[in-house]
């Protein structure tokens, strides 16, 4: 975990920079501005840039930037991501998040998630309380790798908080050292697991929970664990990961892995003005349950995902696009 708290002057500087860039990029369309914002990120305070450069090289699992400016005239929390998109709510905060995110990686989106938007709104929505998407509230959002189904999933998931009045925690876990037996680790590295798209990638635009059965969805077959032996990378979302049907050994190893991860769970409360960048290779994340208010004061996060190099997805997509799929 590493943390950088902006001082008053740095915070004011970022607020002014984000306001100026928003004016220069009207109408605000993040996908059209994102490349220009990478260059503008060189205007961010040098202390922040040095911090992010070091955290990136060290592969810090959770990187927090605190005391970021949040819109002075922040509107009430919209009722859904669709309403937020319609109103371009929190646009200046999207600029701030994209500037900071650009210091680590290249933000991208998915054509079929939140309508292809580069910056998502994480907001509790009526009717979605028990869904398996970020619009849920009353049901725990299970610990997951973001976009587990895809080999071009992000290296980081970035969450910037605009409101969190009830201090709802974001849950986090990773593979604890020495807990999984070596033979399990070897098995979990093998291509004996299937990764399916989650409901946010299937949901229709009106947000209705999809009925498409897991096994009717396209999947990638790969290992759950990969990468450096001393500091394993992982890929898992219990709701959307299975062993290859009939492979009971793989099934058991998957369960053991899930139990190890559940046992290593901690929680962080992301406060307004904090942006948290979670290493999507080293950690999984989720969210505690909470009771939505639906009165404009609800928890509200801005979210984006970044890859370390967008060219990885250009190769996959055969197209120079920030929107995948
Ligand atoms: O709301 C949170 O804290 C995390 C939600 C989540 O998993 C996500 O937005 O990717
Ligand atoms: Fe997530």
UniProtKB/TrEMBL annotation:
Domain TauD/TfdA-like intervals: 233-304
Protein residues bound to Fe cation: 144, 146
Molecular function GO terms recorded: iron ion binding; oxidoreductase activity
Alphabetic keyword roster: Iron, Metal-binding, Oxidoreductase
InterPro entries assigned: Clavaminate_syn-like (IPR014503), TauD-like_sf (IPR042098), TauD/TfdA-like (IPR003819)
Pfam families hit by this protein: TauD
Family: Belongs to the clavaminate synthase family.
Protein name, per record: L-asparagine oxygenase
Organism from which the protein derives: Streptomyces glebosus
Source species taxonomy: Bacteria, Bacillati, Actinomycetota, Actinomycetes, Kitasatosporales
Protein encoded by which gene: asnO
């Amino acid at each position: 975990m590493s943390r950088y708290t902006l001082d008053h002057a740095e915070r004011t500087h970022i607020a002014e920079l984000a306001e100026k860039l928003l004016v220069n990029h009207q109408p605000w369309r993040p996908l059209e501005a994102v490349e220009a914002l990478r260059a503008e990120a060189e205007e961010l305070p040098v202390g922040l840039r040095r911090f992010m450069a070091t955290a990136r090289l060290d592969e810090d699992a959770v990187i927090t930037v605190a005391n970021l400016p949040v819109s002075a005239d922040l509107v009430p929390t919209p009722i859904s991501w669709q309403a937020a998109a319609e109103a371009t709510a929190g646009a200046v905060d999207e600029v701030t998040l994209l500037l900071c995110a650009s210091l680590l990686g290249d933000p991208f989106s998915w054509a079929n998630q939140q309508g292809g938007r580069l910056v998502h709104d994480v907001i509790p929505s009526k009717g979605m309380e028990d869904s398996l998407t970020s619009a849920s509230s009353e049901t725990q959002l299970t610990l997951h790798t973001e976009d587990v189904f895809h080999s071009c999933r992000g290296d980081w998931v970035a969450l910037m908080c605009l409101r969190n009045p009830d201090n709802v925690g974001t849950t986090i876990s990773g593979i604890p050292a020495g807990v999984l037996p070596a033979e399990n680790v070897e098995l979990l590295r093998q291509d004996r697991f299937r990764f399916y798209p989650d409901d946010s990638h299937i949901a229709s635009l009106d947000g209705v929970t999809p009925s498409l059965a897991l096994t009717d969805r396209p999947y990638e077959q790969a290992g759950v664990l990969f990468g450096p032996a001393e500091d394993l990378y992982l890929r898992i979302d219990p709701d959307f990961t299975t062993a290859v049907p009939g492979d009971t050994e793989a099934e058991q190893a998957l369960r053991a892995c899930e139990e190890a991860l559940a046992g290593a769970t901690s929680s962080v409360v992301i406060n307004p003005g904090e942006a948290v960048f979670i290493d999507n290779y080293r950690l999984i994340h989720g969210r505690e349950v909470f009771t939505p208010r639906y009165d404009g004061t609800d928890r509200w996060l801005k979210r984006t995902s970044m890859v370390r190099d967008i060219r990885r997805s250009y190769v996959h997509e055969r197209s120079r696009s920030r929107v995948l799929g």
